[in-house]
Amino acid sequence: MQEDIDKFKEIYDLVITFFVTYSFQLLGALIILIIGLLISNRISRLVLAICERNNLDITLSRFLASCTKITIIVMVGIICLNKIGISVTPFVAAIGAASLGVGLAIQGLLSNYGAGLNIILTRPFVVGDTVTVQGVTGVIDEVRLAHTIMTDEDEVKIIIPNKHIVGEIIHNSSTLRVIEISIGVAYDSDAETVSKTIDTALKNLGIAEYREPQIGIDSFGDSSINFGIRFWVPTVKYHQLRMAVNDTLYEALTGAGIRIPFPQREIRVLQGGVA
At the top level of CATH, which class does the domain 2-105 belong to? Predict the structure, then answer.
C-alpha cells in the first residue's frame, strides 16, 4: 500500500513540476496556435477573394487558398513545438526515413494527387464544362486533388479518380452537348419544305439559341429519304430536350402533310412461284 502511495506521489510531483516549469510555454504555444489558425483562415479567404476578383478559375483559386492555409498552419505548428521545447529535427528525419515505405504503400493515392495537381495546373476543363472521359459524360462539379466530381442530368454524382483522367482522351464540349437524330420522309416529299419545317420547329422550341442546328439529307433508304439533324443543348437538359424535339418534329411534319413512311417490301407474284 505504501509503495502505491509513493508511486502516486512521485507521479503527482512530476506532473506538478512539469506544469510549473512549462505552464507558460504551453499557454504561449496554445495562444500562438489559436491565433495562427485564425490568421490562416482569414488569409485563405483573402487569397480566394483576390483570385475570384481577378476571374481566376474556381478550381485553381481553391487550390491556392488551400495551399496558403496549409503552409501557414505548418509554420505555426513548428513555432508551437519549438515554444514548448520540442525540436522538429527528429520529426523531419523520421518523415524522411519513412517516406519511401509510405510512398510505396500509398502509390495509388499519390498518383491520384499527382494527376489532380496536373489537372489543376493545366486546366483541360473547368467547373461547369461538359466532359466525356472513360465512357462517362457529365458536368464538372468540383475538381479535387484526389478525384473529380461530375453530375449528370439525373443529378447523380460521378466520382472519377484523377489518375483515370490524366492521359486519357477527353471530350470537352463546354456547357453544351450535341444530339444527332435521323428522320425518314417519303420520296415524294419536297426536300426544301422538309428542311424548313424542321428548322422552324427547332427554332420555335428555342434550340437554335444555343447553337445553329445542322439539317440536311443524310442518306437514301429503301423507302425513305433520311434527313440528318444535329443540334446542341445544355447537358443538364439533354434527355429532356431530346424527347421534346422528337415530339415537336413529329407534330410539325405530320401537320405539314409530310409522310413518315414505315419500312416496305415489294412482293411480286410470278407464275410458278413467289419472288
Answer: mainly alpha
